[in-house]
Amino acid sequence: MKKIHFNKVTIIGVGLIGGSLAISLKEAGACDTVVGVGRGIENLETAKRLGIIDSYTTDVKEGVKDSDFVVVGVPVLSIAKVIKTAAPYFKKGSIVTDVGSVKEAVVKEAESLMPKGVFFVGGHPIAGTEHSGAEAAIRGLFKDRRCILTPTSNTDNKALEKVKAVWELAGSEVVIMDAAAHDIILASISHLPHVIAYSLVNTVADMEGTVPPRPTPFGVGASKGRSGGIKAGDVLKYSAGGFKDFTRIASSSPEMWRDICLMNRDAVLRVLDEFQKRLDEIKGHIKDGNAELVQKDFERAKRVRDSLKR
């Protein structure tokens, strides 16, 4: 692993990803000081109290001044805006990277904004939880996870090697990938699941009040003449492990995922179309009472999912 050291690191957006990376850099002694930049004073104060950053500011220009390594960890639709504001104040020779879940549009915009002698490398660590903010930062979050870097023909090789070294230091396996390929892959394995989770929770929430009470069969939990069954508004009360596990990611930041879906619109719509086709197929099998095809679909999915187990 290449040894790296920065005098000053700036984290713009001290949340789960930015905060966790700051922890890794500080614990490895890879920097002298970490400055946090953000809009919320309370979150920045929390990050300082927890030792994630050494100082903070709400002024992006001040935050990036004299910084050797700048990590932009804001929602993807805000990345270019933040970089544009900061660009005139980047130190010559500094490296700028991001951690956004959309790469093609972000990289294109960011590269066009780089001053001469400042180097941008697009990045995306495949790690995270449904939580956000500085308090969500986790020691070892990136250990044994992949981090995708998306260099272009404009990318400086030395800057790429340093960013690669940063993520390896954090414990990640670094993968070099074309930005467009990244976006379709992530639309499939990350963006689509989030859309489905949000939609599923809303679907079940919409069922509240639509399930009419039904008589409980005599002798089963009720005396003759009494009504039982599901009462209006009770649907979510019956959610257990399966529903909660499947929809955990619906607790993620709506702002962040709004931006991701809109910025990666073409890829997200493409995989949504494919998902809709698959959903229509299984719906048809169930409607037709075709047990063989329903089971065949379920068995295929089980084989694929089981192959992911470590």
What keyword list fits this structure?
Rossmann fold, 6-phosphogluconate dehydrogenase C-terminal fold, alpha/beta, 310 residues, three-stranded mixed beta sheet, single chain, six-stranded parallel beta sheet
Q: How would you briefly describe this protein structure?
A:
The chain is an alpha/beta fold. 47% of the residues lie in helices and 14% in strands.
Major beta sheet, strand line-up = 3-2-1-4-5-6
Number of strands: 11
Sheet with the most strands?
A: 6 strands, parallel
**Which CATH architecture of the largest domain is right?**
3-Layer(aba) Sandwich
**Averaging pLDDT over every residue, what do you get?**
91
**Full CATH superfamily name of the largest domain:** NAD(P)-binding Rossmann-like Domain
Number of helices: 11
**N- to C-terminal distance:** 25 Å
- The computed structural class is alpha/beta
Top CATH class of the largest domain: Alpha Beta
CATH topology type of the largest domain: Rossmann fold
